[in-house]
C-alpha cells in the first residue's frame, strides 16, 4: 500500500469513552453532509448498517468483510473506499477486530439533492469528453474503489473541516463536499478507462490513448502524439484528460511507468539500471528521485525488500 493513499490516522476513542464495542459512532453534522467515524473493538458478524442517504465509506484501520445487495462478499481494507447507495443496507463482518486491533472507518452521508446539483453543474459547465458518458456517481458497478492520492487529500480536508470550529465552516464544507464528489467520479472514470480500456476502444477517445501508453512505456510518449490520437489540440487534450481523470497525461504516464518498474524490480535477475531504461525513464538519477517520491524508498531498497519477501 503506498503511504499516500491513507488519510492521516484519526485518534481512536479511549475504551472508557465507547458506548459500544461494535460500530461505536462519532458524528459531525454539517449543513452539507454528515461525517461519521465508526470504530469496532471486538469480533462481530452480520452487523447491519443503513444510513438513509448515499454514503462514501473509507477504511482507515483493520479489516471488514462487506456484504452488499446482489454482490459477492469482499474484504474491505485501509486505502479503499466503498460507495453505498441510498436504499442499500450494508451487512458487515469484523473477523479480526479486538482491543489491540480495532477497525476504524469513515462514512460521509451525502444528501441526494447535493449530489444532483453538483452533477448537473458539472455536465452543464464541464462536460466529459464523450457526450454519451455524462458525469454520474455509480454506486453499483464501480462502487469499491482503491483510493487515489487526490481522493485521499480531499477526505483529509473533509475530516479537518468537520472538526474545525470556525464561522465559515459550513461554507468550506460545501466546497469540500463538491470537490469530494468530483474526485469520486474521476476515480470511477479511471477505473472504467484505465482498468478496462480494451472494452471502450470504439466508444471512448481516451481508451485508445491509454492502450497506446500501456503498450509503449519504454518509448518516448510525447503529448503531441497522444493528443493527435485523441483528435484534439495539445491544450484541449491536456485539459480534458485532467478533467476526466483528475491527473495530467504526464502524471498518468509516470504512474504507469512506476507500476511497471515495480513489476520488473520484483524479478530476481533484473537490475535497477535495466529497469530504468526498460520503463522509458532513460535517466537513472531522475528514475531514483521519482521512485523515491512516490514509493517512499529507493528502487534498490524496494528490490531488496521484495527479494527478501519472495
From TrEMBL:
<dbReference type="InterPro" id="IPR050204">
    <property type="entry name" value="AraC_XylS_family_regulators"/>
</dbReference>
<dbReference type="InterPro" id="IPR020449">
    <property type="entry name" value="Tscrpt_reg_AraC-type_HTH"/>
</dbReference>
<dbReference type="Pfam" id="PF06719">
    <property type="entry name" value="AraC_N"/>
</dbReference>
<feature type="domain" description="HTH araC/xylS-type">
    <location>
        <begin position="207"/>
        <end position="305"/>
    </location>
</feature>
<keyword id="KW-0238">DNA-binding</keyword>
<dbReference type="InterPro" id="IPR009057">
    <property type="entry name" value="Homeodomain-like_sf"/>
</dbReference>
<keyword id="KW-0804">Transcription</keyword>
<keyword id="KW-0805">Transcription regulation</keyword>
<dbReference type="InterPro" id="IPR018062">
    <property type="entry name" value="HTH_AraC-typ_CS"/>
</dbReference>
<dbReference type="GO" id="GO:0003700">
    <property type="term" value="F:DNA-binding transcription factor activity"/>
</dbReference>
<dbReference type="InterPro" id="IPR009594">
    <property type="entry name" value="Tscrpt_reg_HTH_AraC_N"/>
</dbReference>
<dbReference type="Pfam" id="PF12833">
    <property type="entry name" value="HTH_18"/>
</dbReference>
<dbReference type="InterPro" id="IPR018060">
    <property type="entry name" value="HTH_AraC"/>
</dbReference>
<dbReference type="GO" id="GO:0043565">
    <property type="term" value="F:sequence-specific DNA binding"/>
</dbReference>
<protein>
    <submittedName>
        <fullName>AraC family transcriptional regulator</fullName>
    </submittedName>
</protein>
Amino acid at each position: 500500500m503506498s503511504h499516500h493513499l491513507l488519510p492521516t490516522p484519526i485518534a481512536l476513542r479511549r475504551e472508557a469513552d465507547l458506548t459500544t464495542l461494535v460500530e461505536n459512532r462519532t458524528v459531525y453534522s454539517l449543513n452539507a453532509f454528515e461525517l461519521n467515524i465508526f470504530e469496532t473493538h471486538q469480533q462481530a458478524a452480520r452487523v447491519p448498517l443503513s444510513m438513509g442517504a448515499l454514503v462514501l465509506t473509507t477504511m482507515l484501520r483493520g479489516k471488514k468483510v462487506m456484504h452488499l445487495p446482489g454482490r459477492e462478499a469482499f474484504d474491505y481494507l485501509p486505502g479503499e473506499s466503498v460507495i453505498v447507495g441510498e436504499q442499500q443496507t450494508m451487512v458487515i463482518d469484523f473477523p479480526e477486530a479486538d482491543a489491540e486491533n480495532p477497525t476504524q472507518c469513515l462514512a460521509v452521508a451525502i444528501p441526494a439533492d447535493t449530489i444532483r446539483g453538483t452533477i448537473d453543474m458539472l455536465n452543464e459547465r464541464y462536460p466529459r469528453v464523450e457526450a454519451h458518458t455524462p458525469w454520474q456517481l455509480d454506486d453499483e458497478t464501480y462502487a469499491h474503489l482503491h483510493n487515489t492520492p487526490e481522493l485521499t487529500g480531499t477526505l483529509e480536508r473533509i475530516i479537518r473541516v468537520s472538526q474545525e470550529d470556525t464561522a465559515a465552516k459550513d461554507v468550506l464544507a460545501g466546497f469540500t463536499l463538491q470537490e469530494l464528489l468530483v474526485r469520486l467520479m474521476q476515480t470511477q472514470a479511471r477505473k472504467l478507462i484505465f482498468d478496462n480500456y480494451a472494452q471502450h476502444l470504439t466508444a471512448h477517445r481516451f481508451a485508445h490513448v491509454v492502450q497506446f501508453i500501456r503498450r509503449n512505456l519504454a518509448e518516448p510518449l510525447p503529448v503531441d502524439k497522444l493528443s493527435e490520437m485523441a483528435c484534439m489540440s495539445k491544450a484541449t487534450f491536456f485539459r480534458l484528460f485532467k478533467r476526466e481523470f483528475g491527473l495530467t497525461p504526464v502524471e498518468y504516464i509516470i504512474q504507469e511507468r512506476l507500476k511497471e518498474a515495480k513489476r520488473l524490480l520484483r524479478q530476481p535477475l533484473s537490475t535497477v539500471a535495466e529497469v530504468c531504461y526498460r520503463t522509458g525513464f532513460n535517466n537513472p538519477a531522475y528514475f531514483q528521485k521519482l521512485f523515491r517520491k512516490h514509493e517512499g524508498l529507493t528502487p534498490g531498497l524496494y528490490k531488496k525488500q521484495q527479494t527478501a519477501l519472495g
